[in-house]
Amino acid sequence: MSNSDHLAQRLALIVPLLLLGGAYISQYIFGLFPCEMCWWQRWPHFAAAGLAVLSLFAPPKRIWVAIAAGGILTSGLIGFFHAGVEYHFWEGVTGCALPAAHGGDMLEAIFDQPIVRCDQAPWTLAGISLAGFNAVISIAAAITIWVLLAKKDAK
Question: Residue 137: which domain range?
């Protein structure tokens, strides 16, 4: 693998791990519970991180990295859609996902869950929501990874 391929591989691993880490820090340290669409953004990052790890060990490495970039892009596009819902550019989903109750009263467990709406950003910075940041970072990272993979290193 060339230098640009190695950089692409590192980005394919680091970007989803950092974004997932940020999501879990915001959830467990700052109490910003995820809505259903937030979870939709996490799943492609899990897949991308797994594919990037696979690229460390299994050939064809460049293909695994390219597919991982596709997962990162998928998360970014979901984030773009979610941000549009938060900014009321279009309608989103109306259902909210609640974790299953383990023992005890099911109704009580449901009422104890935080209500998280997909159409309200719980936090913004300079007017950009977490979904918006995921969109910008993920889409830019995926494009960067593909450009690096397409680049021919000078000999």
Answer: 3-150
